[in-house]
Design goal:
The structure is a single chain. 58% of the residues lie in helices and 0% in strands. By secondary structure, the chain is mainly alpha-helical. α1 crosses α4. It has one domain: Orthogonal Bundle (Non-ribosomal Peptide Synthetase Peptidyl Carrier Protein, Chain A), CATH 1.10.1200.10.
Length: 105
């Protein structure tokens, strides 16, 4: 099922609001919010977020490649806009895979 970018924004912001409670973040969460500078996420927190996104959509996304790319640039923080664009691009480029199918493979 194809997801619109707007649907992904809503999903990501809702998930971040849930996670923000764990990190005591009370600011606004918009596409211009940065995971590190604004929300105080560290590397492990971003990995947890990536796992939650994959569980939400039932699909494995190439976060390892994304994180490697982020690690190579001068500005290593990730804006919500960039996170959503990555998810939108890769979610709609792959057929949905069942987690059970991966276990069986």
């Amino acid at each position: 099922m194809q997801r619109s970018r707007e649907e992904i924004v809503v999903d990501v912001v809702a998930l971040l609001r849930q996670l923000a409670d764990d990190w005591d973040y009370s600011g606004d969460i918009t596409e211009d919010t940065y995971l590190g500078a604004d929300m105080g996420f560290e590397s492990l927190d971003i990995v947890v977020l990536g796992t939650a996104i994959q569980e939400r959509y039932g699909q494995v996304l190439p976060f390892t490649d994304f994180f490697a790319e982020i690690g190579q640039r001068e500005q290593r923080d990730i804006a919500i806009r960039e996170w959503v664009d990555f998810i939108f691009t890769h979610l709609n480029a792959q057929p949905a895979r069942s987690p059970l199918a991966e276990v069986a493979a």
